[in-house]
Description:
By secondary structure, this protein is an alpha+beta fold. The chain has helices spanning 42-47, 93-107, 206-216, 232-244, 254-262, 284-291, 457-480, 544-547; strands at residues 52-56, 59-63, 66-68, 74-75, 114-115, 140-144, 147-150, 181-182, 199-205, 294-302, 314-324, 331-352, 355-365, 374-377, 383-386, 412-416, 423-427, 493-501, 515-517, 567-568.
Amino acid sequence: MNKKMIIAGLAPIQMALMSFAIAAPLDGYVPSDVEKVCNISPNTFSSDWVRISLPTPGGPSVVGPFFDKDSGIVYIFPADGPNFTIPSEGDPDCAFFSWSSQMFLWLTSSVNDVVVPPAKSSNFINTNSSTPYVFSSEFFYRLDNGTLVPQDHTAAPSLKSLRVAKGDEDLGSIGQAGDSGVLFTHTNTDVSKASSLVYYEMLTNRSYGYVADAVINKAASPNNYSEFIDSSVESCSAILYGLNNGFVDNTGQTAASLYNIFCPNNPVKIDGIPTFPTKIPQLETAIDFLSMNMEVKTAWVDASTLKNPERYITQKGVIPVFSNVDGKNEMVHMWNKNADLALVGMHVVGSVKGHPELIWATFEHVDNAPNSTYSYTDKNGKVKSQTDTTTKANNKWLLSNGTPVSTVTEYGSSYTDPSNSVNYIKPASKTQTASVSTPSEVNRINPWGRIQGTASAKGNSAVISANISALTQLQQFYDSLGLKNVKDPRMNYMLTGASWGVDGSFPTGDQAAQIAGTPAMANTTMETFQQTFLQKNGDNTGCFSCHGIDAGENKFDVSHIFDGIKKVKK
């Protein structure tokens, strides 16, 4: 990357907390009177827009936060990575929900030229499909056929869809969970002009790649990892492995200098004079240190099918085009095309201090699908009921006409012909007569990641209020700079759940009691047809129903992609 970066100091910004009742984010999508179970304080949120102390000729200098000068989106480091702790106030789950929300904001921040502070202008926010985000930058690897491939934000990512099965060897074509279900959006609604396939991509961060490479090559101690890293010591060991094995660009010794700042107990020798960071990749060791191990899965639709694509995070990509086979109820992959794509869902999965089993968080665009009936507590502690579904037509959704459903019908399923590796979309069952491209009627069956009922009201309020609080702080951050009415597309995405193991344990996936947070969560764009996966005891264990592991098993098996990685490219 050759883009220059202007850096200047900025004192911590103190922001007044906006009242939930006044122009609250997600207004109209969540109840405005929800109890503030999770209330991210202004000081916490402000301090998490990380500032780094760097050595300069005049002495240590604190820099950051950084802003994209074109879009105005704040470029943040992950919140409190290896120093992750649970705050003493409020529900202990709130710290995890806060981490999840701020990681999403970080991942969807820009890595364009940056300034501190940004210039004020009426066109401060002007994102488009060419914006290079953190998740599509050099800080993340793209998974392609079992190889972790370094990304170049100047090139369009090749987003693939459809896979044969969860354990498909073609790991670069990760798609729907379960039995390879295929999802089409609805057409001619308030939010869409035409139907689109939903496409998928899988990414990992760099330190995940360092760990994978060390395991593949059976590295000696301290890099003989048996689980994902979850401490600053392990984070330092992974970065040092990257430095020693050519994964970290050490031009000008900047990376080594930053390593010594973050990892002073095992310093490396610096040959020559360190250069002041003028390029974003030169901050790579800081990024690696703070983000620990991460997986990111994204779901996309063709932006040209949307009526208001400006409401979405967009990227340019290369997608497969499927066409009907004459006389048959099936579609075949014909060619690939360049397209502007709109983000409709994201899994944010990462380790934090004491949690090698990873935090599993999921986000959706507010226009995806209606919530089924759920309970919440209001500001007076009273349990109330809410629903977005109706027996009358409601065309405000991308994946639904508002009709209440208890299960989601799967019409198309992906299939790869083993004789020629050609991808098809075929009927999901032998008795099916509807077209394979029929849009499914999708509801968010367990809103906020819990089996619904009055017992889930407080937990639902925790997730809802965490959403409102994080986005309120983001809005207040812009307001503090005198930037009113900023239209940041990230304001249209919401956390719908986050799960992790109780006390950092690895859940087996058959008991909800082993799972903290929201054990029954699912994303309507990625687990569309697997939202009510019940165990024999009646538990819905969400992510861990598939990602749980038994005692004695390889702990990396909690990630379905880890063992399938054959190579990490430098």
